[in-house]
Specification:
The chain has 206 residues and is α/β, with parallel strands linked by helices. Helix content is 31%, strand content 30%. The chain has one domain: 3-Layer(aba) Sandwich (Rossmann fold). The protein is built from seven helices and eleven strands. The strands form two sheets. A nine-stranded mixed sheet has the order 5-4-6-7-3-8-9-10-11, sandwiched between helices. The chain has a two-stranded antiparallel ribbon with strand order 1-2. The relative contact order is 0.20.
C-alpha cells in the first residue's frame, strides 16, 4: 500500500513517511485552536478538493493562497447541513489527491444515522478510487454531535488536537489514539502552531 505524505514533517516521520493511501482521517479540535493550519498543510502537499461547510469559498481560497497553493479546488455548501449537496460537491478526486471536509460537524448534526453513514461511504469510495486521503475536520464544543461516534468509528485514523492555556503559555498536543493500519502514538506530540506546524520544544510550565 502506498504511503502519502501529510505535508507535516513531524507526522510523516512518526508514521514512516505518511498515511496509507485510502485513509479517512478525523481531526478533532476546539474551534478556537489553530487547527486550520493542519488542514492547510494537508491541502498543499497534493492536489486537493476542499469542501467547506462553515466558511465561504473565498475565505478558504484566501487562506490557501497565502501559502502559495494553486492546486486546490474549493467548494462551499449553500446549506451547511445538506448531505446531498455535500456529497455532490465532493466530486472525483485526482489520483493520490486529498479531500478535506471543513467542518463535518454541521453534517453530523443534521443527518439521520443512515443518511450520514451513506455520506461517509461516499467519502470512503472517493478516496479509495483515487488512492488518496480524506481529512474530516471535526470541531468540538459542548456536547458532541449525535453522529460523532459514527465519524470516529468509520475513520482509519483519529487525530485529537488538545489546546490548553496555562498562564501565558498555549500548549497544543496532538494525540493519535487510533491508527487502523499502523501503531497509534504512545505519547502526544507537542506542536507549535503559529504560521506553520512544527514540534514545540519549549518546556512545560510546572
Amino acid at each position: 500500500m502506498e504511503t502519502l505524505p501529510t505535508g507535516i514533517s513531524v507526522l510523516d516521520r512518526q508514521f514512516g513517511g505518511g498515511l496509507p493511501s485510502g485513509s479517512v482521517v478525523v481531526l478533532k479540535a476546539n474551534p478556537d485552536s489553530q487547527s486550520e493550519l493542519i488542514l492547510n498543510r494537508f491541502a498543499r502537499v497534493r492536489r486537493c478538493r476542499y469542501l467547506t461547510t462553515v466558511r465561504s469559498a473565498d475565505a478558504v481560497e484566501a487562506a490557501l493562497s497565502r501559502d502559495g497553493d494553486e492546486e486546490t479546488t474549493v467548494e462551499a455548501t449553500a446549506d451547511a447541513g445538506d448531505l446531498d449537496e455535500a456529497a455532490s460537491l465532493i466530486g472525483d478526486l485526482p489520483e493520490d489527491g486529498t479531500l478535506i471536509v471543513d467542518s463535518v460537524e454541521p453534517l453530523e448534526d443534521a443527518a439521520s444515522p443512515a443518511a450520514y453513514a451513506q455520506f461517509l461511504d461516499g467519502v470512503r469510495s472517493s478516496v479509495d478510487d483515487a488512492g488518496g486521503v480524506a481529512l474530516l475536520h471535526a470541531l468540538r464544543g459542548g456536547e458532541d454531535p449525535q453522529m460523532r461516534r459514527i465519524t470516529e468509528q468509520v475513520a482509519d485514523v483519529v487525530f485529537d488536537l488538545r489546546t490548553t492555556v496555562t498562564g501565558t503559555e498555549i500548549a497544543n498536543r496532538l494525540v493519535v489514539a487510533k491508527f487502523r493500519s499502523g501503531a497509534a502514538l504512545e505519547e502526544p506530540l507537542k506542536l507549535k502552531l503559529t504560521d506553520e506546524v512544527a514540534v514545540d520544544t519549549s518546556r512545560d510550565i510546572a
